[in-house]
Amino acid sequence: MTREHAAGREAGNGDYRQRAAAAGLVPLWTFFGEWFSAEPRASAVAYRWRYADVRSTVLDAAAAVSTADAERRVLVLENPGLPGRHLATDALYAGLQLIMPGESARAHRHTASALRLIVEGENTYTAVAGERCYMRRGDLIVTPSWAWHEHRNEGGEPTIWLDVLDVPLIRFLGAGFSEQYSEPEHPKRAPPGDSRLRYGQGLVPVGFARSTGASPVFAYPFEYAYEALDHLRTHGERDACHAFKMEYIDPTSGGPAIPTISTFLQLVPVGFATSPYRSTAGQIVMAVRGRGRVTIGRGVETVTFDYEPSDVWAVPSWQHVAVEAAEESVLFIASDEAVHRKLGVWREERS
Ligand code: 1HN
User: Fold this and answer.
1) Best mutation site among 75, 126, 163, 171 for ligand 1, i.e. most ligand atoms within 8 A of its Cβ?
2) What is the residue with the minimal CA distance to atom 12 of ligand 1?
3) Complete DSSP assignment for 293-315
4) Which residues pair with 150 in a beta bridge?
5) How far apart are CA 203 and CA 312, in angstroms?
6) Which residue has its alpha carbon closest to ligand 1 atom 14?
7) Which among 67, 71, 72 is the best mutation to test ligand 1's pocket, defined by most ligand atoms within 8 Å of the CB?
8) Which atom of ligand 1 is nearest to the CA of 116?
């Protein structure tokens, strides 16, 4: 092709693009490479929120807004790679929610599924479908899609927890509905612990039939989860990439505790360094116990930081992760792995 030809084609292309745009069309070849990169390229970046840095700002929200005015008083963990998008990873939302002593957040429901991982405070509950799930540090409480839920602090200290929701996915699909309950509180339907005792003890009431895709168990106390992990550490095999890692499941199906969000608890023994591992899932991690160092990514884009209890960090899709535990560490992980697996696009790489 002559130089004139090439220049002519370039100019013609610009002109063509404009004509196409005027007709409501976009040439695929102008962005094909961006869409079909050889490997996933998340917009989110590896990022850590140090709890010691954000805690006072979260507590100051109590003076800035009431729970009644805010609906939910939450400080969103916004990934710097997703400015203005209010997301922690490309597909997951996360925030730190505050309820002061005597306060409540009224009953509502939405099609997005939610989880709470309790950071601090006691004598606070989330009532899920009328069952009060009392919170202790490290507990996981799940709110299935379309389940009524409200929060109340009956204690004397502020309560703070990490919220993770599948909102971006549900909004992307155009499946977002929400509704407020007619009263501030949903009527009590069951005593505390009911869902776990009914469905989470290796037995179910005869005649039980799952009515939705979600787990009928709402609360996964840290005490039991840690007991299981500790047992695995003593009697199980240590994995080079995961050390000891267990998944929270719906005990009636064996599937993930939340259909769209995979949840895990990981124990990394003191002095152990996990081998770099990556998967297509984006992850939100919180250190429940321990201190150490996390390395995310490889080569020039490697991000390394130290963590301490209650720190939260985001791991973008397809970036290597390695953890070195300076103290025995217990890490809670929420990821979109469950969706990848359901769609048949899950990939992982151990190295
Ligand atoms: C929500 O309903 C809660 O119920 C927390 O506590 C965070 C973020 C986006 C949309 C709904 C809650 C939320 C949320």
Assistant:
1) 163
2) 72
3) EEEES-GGG-EEEEE-TT-EEEE
4) 127
5) 35
6) 72
7) 72
8) 6
Report the separation in Å between the CA atom of 108 and the middle of ligand 1, taken as the mean of its atom positions.
9
Ligand 1 proximal residues by C-beta, below 6 Å: 72, 74, 93, 95, 97, 110, 114, 149, 163, 165, 167
Helix (H, G, I), strand (E, B) or coil at 72: coil
pTM metric for this prediction: 0.95
Pocket test for ligand 1, best of 73, 110, 124 (most atoms within 8 A of CB): 110
Ligand 1, atom 10: closest residue by C-alpha: 167
- Residue nearest to ligand 1 atom 3, measured at CA: 72
d(CA 122, CA 124): 5
- Backbone phi, psi, residue 222, to 5°: -60, -40
Q: What angle do CA 289, 136, 66 make, to 5 degrees?
A: 110
The owner of tokens 């130089």 is 3
The string of DSSP letters for 105-160 reads EEEEEESS-EEEEEEE-SSEEEEETTEEEE--TT-EEEE-TT--EEEEE-SSS-EE
Q: What is the chain's pLDDT, residue by residue, as a tens digit (351 residues)?
A: 556 566 556 555 789 999 999 999 999 999 999 999 999 999 999 999 999 999 999 999 999 999 999 999 999 999 999 999 999 999 999 999 999 999 999 999 999 999 999 999 999 999 999 999 999 999 999 999 999 999 999 999 999 999 999 999 999 999 999 999 999 999 999 999 999 999 999 999 999 998 888 999 999 999 999 999 999 999 999 999 999 999 999 999 999 999 999 999 999 999 999 999 999 999 999 999 999 999 999 988 899 999 999 999 999 999 999 999 999 999 999 999 999 999 999 999 998
d(CA 58, CA 52): 11
* Nearest alpha carbon to residue 258 among 310, 304, 220: 220
Classify 4 as helix, strand or coil: helix
Closest ligand 1 atom to Cα of 150: 4
Q: Measured from the CA of 105, which atom of ligand 1 is nearest?
A: 6
What is the position in ligand 1's atom list of the atom closest to the CA of 95? 7
